[in-house]
Write a structure and sequence with these properties.
This is Protein-lysine N-methyltransferase EFM6. Its main location: cytoplasm. With about 270 residues, the chain is of the alpha/beta class. It is about 35% helix and about 20% strand. It is built from ten helices and nine strands. The strands form two sheets. The protein has a seven-stranded mixed β-sheet. It has a two-stranded antiparallel sheet with strand order 1-2. α4 runs parallel beside α6 and α8 runs parallel beside α9. Bound molecules: S-adenosylmethionine. The site of S-adenosylmethionine has 24 residues, from α4.
């Protein structure tokens, strides 16, 4: 159901020929340049292992550098089409992640009536996909991430002519919220649970941004490691949640270990 990008090969014309002419260090350097995330990635067989500290980020296409893709939501009855620059050299947020597509699809399914006029903040936006969809459907949106992602987010805002309703801000979880971002009515987060040291920081940021009982939070998550449980143990202290049940695609993405949760801040 989700749009995907095609894996790209390394920039060697014929890997087997070129590789033999490089010594090991030079090969490592070449691979690092062409595929900066490779040390963070494991192949599918690692997911089968019961070793919770092995997988840091999920398997993904080998190398995506400076491509522009087009994604349309909702997939079953297209309402909004987003051009998205993707580039893995900006960090793991530089590509479109499955949970981001699921969340984009859900908010597009809810449509303009749901998003129109709402103040919305997305955390860990990466390319900005989810926030761009929210902006294209009438929301006033702040897409946020760490400094290395701000450039690609801004390019994607411009690419879709959404400058009037989507703003880009640096927001490092656990740090003071930017003073020019208002308390949102809706917080969006997709695929933000993957790095254990960031777990308490993300909970802190969500907690500071949300108001008891009134801020809606849509949290789309792909289960990858047993250690993810620790995130939910921390989250539980500040939030309760339930699965979003009115998404017609729920069964499909549940099969891929993706869940869409609605969080509520505890009093
Ligand atoms: C797996 S990516 C998901 C990106 C996007 N939401 C999507 O679904 O395509 C996780 C994002 O969280 C951001 N992130 C990780 N740690 C962060 C932190 N401490 N503060 C702010 N953002 C962070 C990363 O930069 C990255 O863009």
């Amino acid at each position: 159901m989700m749009a995907t990008t095609q894996p790209r090969s390394l920039p060697f014309e014929s890997p087997s020929e070129s590789v033999t002419s490089l010594n090991e260090i030079a090969l490592d350097e070449a691979l690092d340049i062409s595929d900066p995330l490779r040390h963070f990635r494991t192949d599918a067989s690692d997911f089968a292992r019961d070793d919770e500290d092995t997988v840091v980020v999920p398997s993904q296409p080998r190398s995506i550098l400076g491509e522009t893709i087009r994604l349309t939501f909702p997939v079953n009855s297209p309402l909004v089409s987003i051009s998205l620059k993707v580039d893995a050299s900006h960090g793991c947020g530089g590509i479109a992640w499955p949970a981001g597509e699921v969340l984009s699809n859900y908010i597009a399914f809810r449509g303009v009536e749901y998003l129109q006029g709402k103040k919305i903040v997305e955390v860990g936006s990466g390319t900005g996909l989810v926030g761009l969809v929210a902006g294209a459907l009438g929301g006033t949106v702040w897409i946020t991430d760490q400094a290395p992602l701000l450039g690609i987010m801004q390019q994607n805002v411009s690419l879709n002519n959404l400058q009037s309703c989507v703003s880009v801000r640096e927001l490092n979880w656990g740090e003071t919220l930017p003073s020019d971002i208002p308390l949102p009515e809706l917080i969006l987060a997709a695929d933000c649970v993957y790095f254990e040291p960031a777990f308490p920081l993300l909970v802190q940021t969500l907690s500071e941004m949300a108001v008891n009982g009134s801020t809606e939070i849509l949290f789309c998550y792909k289960k990858r490691r047993k250690a993810d449980k620790r995130f939910f143990t921390m989250l539980k202290k500040k939030f309760s949640w339930e699965e979003v049940e009115d998404d017609p695609n729920r069964e499909i993405y549940n099969r891929e270990a993706i869940s869409l949760l609605a969080l509520t801040k505890r009093p």
